Amino acid sequence: MKKIYSALWMVFLFGISMLSAQEKTITGTVNDEGGLPLPGVNVLVKGTTNGTQTDFDGNYSISADEGQILIFSYLGLKTVEREIGSSNTMNIVLEEDASQLDEVIVVGYGTQSKRNLTDNIAKLTADDIKEVQNPNFQNALVGKAAGVQITQTNGKVEGGINIRVRGAASISGDSQPLYVVDGIPLVDPLSDNDVFVPGAANATGNGAPTNPLLTLSANEIESIDILKDASSAAIYGARGANGVVIITTKKGKQGKANFALNLAQGFSQPTNKRDYLNAAQYIELFTEAGRNSAFFDPDEGQAFVEARFDRYAGDTDWRTGEVDTDWQEESFQDGYQTDVDFSVSGADAKTSYFFSGAYNNSAGIVRGNELEKASARINIDHKLTDKFKAGMNLSFSRAEIDRISNDNAFSTPLQAIAQSPLALTRLPDGTPNASTQYGNFLFDLDNSFFKTIIRRLTGKAYGEYKFTDYLKINSDFAYDFYSQTEDDYDGLNALFQSTSGQSTATDIYSENYIFSNYLTFDKTFNDSHDVNLVLGTEFNKINRRIGSVTSILFPSDAIPTVSSGAEVIAGTGIQRKSTFLSYFARATYSFDNKYLFKASVRRDGSSRFGKNQRFGTFPAFSAGWVLSEENFLKDSQTISFLKLRASWGQLGNAEIGDYPSRYLFSSFSYNKQGGLAPLQPGNDELTWEKSTQTDIGLEFGFFDGIISGEIDYYNKETDNLLFALPLPLSGGAATVNTNAGTLVNKGVEFVLNTRNASTENFTWTTNFNIANNDNEVTALANDNADVITGRNILRVGENLNAFYMIEYAGVDPANGDALYFLNTENTDGTLNRETTNNPNDAERIVAGNPYPEWTAGLTNNINYKNIDFTFTLQGQWGASIFNDAGRFESANGDFFDNQTTDQLRRWQQPGDITDVPEARLFEGNGTARSTRYLDKADFIRLRNISLGYTIPKNALKGVGLSKVRVYVSGLNLLTFTDFEGGWDPESTLDVNGPAQPGIAFYSAPPAKTITLGLNINF
């Protein structure tokens, strides 16, 4: 028996010793892909409660047995599992988990997972914009979001950006989306749709808008969420009708400080140049035009033309071809862009920080147009206690712009193309040639300047207190200060200068205060019921001030300040203000992660509207059903995700200026006494435009997400349109602001994402999106009476601001007359399609749509080992552009403007079949505003392309760098289009108001840019 006990005792001791031998301490470090240590990583022995976290330096220590599995997890990074072997050391590298990062969507006053979203929101990340070096970061968004059309007005460096979310939804109001940066709704102090006190527009520069987000740099941006449907945007109520663009700036990630430096140098040229007549062709065409003119007999006409040639040629001999000036080349220049930005970021268990700075210096493709801007940002979050944290976002930016005249001014460089090629640009002594047909823009280039400086300070201080794990309160105070100074000086020898110098100094200031407080309840009950509630209030006050002074008679161009002028001849001083008071609530509910519901409401009050209609209520509802969680699909090997969602809601538009409902008076002087005169009749019933939107969508994923996407149908009806109703002139005012009319936008959006390849060394993903938008005016004021503005019309049953003009019918082959379709109404109601050579006899028709009916984008991202390659194609179809400059530059020699070379195919003898009428000086043969100058603006463009190489990490060991990447990128390199009505199918007149879209007039094309860049991470 003793032997048995002894044997059992030995077995027990051996087992204990074996167990003791297997259990050991595992130590190591956890780093990110850049080699930086990660603090706070969870380390857990699988199947147990034994766990720990990494310290500030990424180190950990845990006791475990050989053969057990350690799990390393961290928010936003892929979870890693490793089996414990014989070694006591285990070092881990965690990679970013793109699927997790993409799940978080910013929805306004909170976030929500993409999976449980019942709204239509397009999300873009920093990776979508980082490769496009451009002063306007919005250019990088083009083609990336279905139903979102982004165009730059023209190719000037400060050019305005037009973003339309699901079409244009207003007649007189602003159609731009609301921009929200880190919770701060930004105000465009000088929107071209901002109807403010008459006279103010004359005090704000050259009349062309600048990009309100010009001062925001791409290196600051973490993500951009575009709220497209009413359910998502209704939380912004009265200002969400045109969509909401939420921009979230970067924060520090846990780990040691990460320093990033980016350097880039770009070189730009116009995307397109047109062919104009050279000197010999010019002489040929205009000699013929003079001989054909009915105002002269042939010999007199030729003599008249030759006298003009003598005038333009000056002391040179045009008969021998001594001068052949290409004024287009004189107007354009090779541009450049220099970009430098850096950031320092990091975080520990309590504090997160992000510091950044950026500098851009750009010379545009149009002579005299340059931009220099600098920006800085500080984002800090600090956890004071387990319940309370506070933070601050602060940014400052400064942009200095050398501006040129707007497209409609003779002094703009691009109107120089109208000059005769027989004329010198400069005389032998270097001074500009004054013997040109029109004013020579070089006089302004040499003797004047127009400098705009924009300074913007945006900041937010906020606190968050957690009562419990599921209930918290946020209090935010934000401030947005915008300052724009303009100095416009025309010296003694400037173009059209009648005095010894004129100077105008303008100051524009805008202050925007936002105070927000909101409660958030977020709790899961019984592991099945997820409830999120938000309840809050917001107060927004906007103050604006505009001042301008003009003086003349300067002793010298060397002292161009206003105070140096001998006489002050004009002055303007304007103050404006508006306020918003809002209450909002939102509730989301999810049952078993497959039945989803959401409701929100916002009540807004605005000082802009009539005293009887100050408040409006904007509700929204949405629901979703994750079918892939149902038993009949849960085990499907094909369908990995399937969600049906629908939403309905109402939104408002308040962007029509500060005093549209008020009775306004203007001051005047009579017999040296001040007085007041009526200026604007008031309307106490003026209220919101209200947009009612319905959205039905299907989100899908196949083969574990290898193929995914969504399909949406939407219907957006905007009624109570803000409208400037014409009044009889005898009343003393031209218009009264009122609510009248209804506009409908509806369409379909399709998004397809594919993971074409995914191996250790090779990945390839594709995003394709296409969207259709049809808009129609369904009601107007005064019993649906037409409203005609220039070449555009508002008519029930037609597109918003449709083109309205007489129809060009070509050329009479018998005599070279330009012909127009009569389009008068026959007795049976049909159109009379007979032709006439008198444009005054022809009736106007609806001839085109200024807005595209289809937009699309295709993006490919390819990575092979250390090489990355990406490109985006953008397309649009269905829009037209009217080239108002065609009446001068493509006018078959009607006046002495230089002509496009297609005018050489003019009619010359009976029987000629052509679309260009006979050249006849001063006769206006075919130069009426007609569909002759209306062209389809369909195109496909290689919007951006980038090729990069990342140096292997092994090669960087010992030099203190975690990442080095070199790249080359291109912007607007190729455009495929049949468009001939101007330089580019996207460029339009930069002084257009919303009532006359789609008009081009010597409008600069965008730049195509090639950039070399270097990214360095420490």
What secondary-structure arrangement, pairings included, does this model have?
Blueprint: H1 2-22, E1 23-32, E2 42-45, E3 51-53, E4 59-65, E5 69-74, E6 77-83, E7 92-94, H2 98-103, E8 104-106, E9 111-113, E10 121-125, E11 148-152, E12 161-165, E13 178-181, E14 184-185, E15 221-227, H3 230-233, E16 244-249, E17 255-270, H4 279-292, H5 298-313, H6 327-331, E18 335-347, E19 351-363, E20 370-383, E21 388-402, H7 442-447, E22 448-466, E23 471-490, E24 502-525, E25 529-552, E26 567-591, E27 595-606, E28 615-626, H8 631-634, E29 639-653, E30 664-670, E31 673-680, E32 689-702, E33 707-719, E34 722-726, E35 735-739, E36 742-758, E37 762-779, H9 781-784, E38 787-789, E39 792-794, E40 802-805, E41 808-811, E42 818-821, E43 824-825, E44 831-832, E45 835-836, E46 845-848, E47 854-864, E48 867-877, E49 880-883, H10 886-889, E50 934-936, E51 939-950, H11 953-956, E52 963-976, E53 999-1000, E54 1007-1017
Parallel strand pairs: 1-7, 13-16, 49-53
Antiparallel strand pairs: 1-4, 2-3, 2-5, 5-6, 8-9, 10-15, 11-12, 13-14, 15-16, 17-18, 17-54, 18-19, 19-20, 20-21, 21-22, 22-23, 23-24, 24-25, 25-26, 26-27, 27-28, 28-29, 29-32, 30-31, 32-33, 33-36, 34-35, 36-37, 37-47, 38-39, 39-40, 40-46, 41-42, 42-45, 43-44, 47-48, 48-51, 49-50, 51-52, 52-54
Pfam family, one: CarbopepD_reg_2
GO cellular component, one term: cell outer membrane
Family: Belongs to the TonB-dependent receptor family.
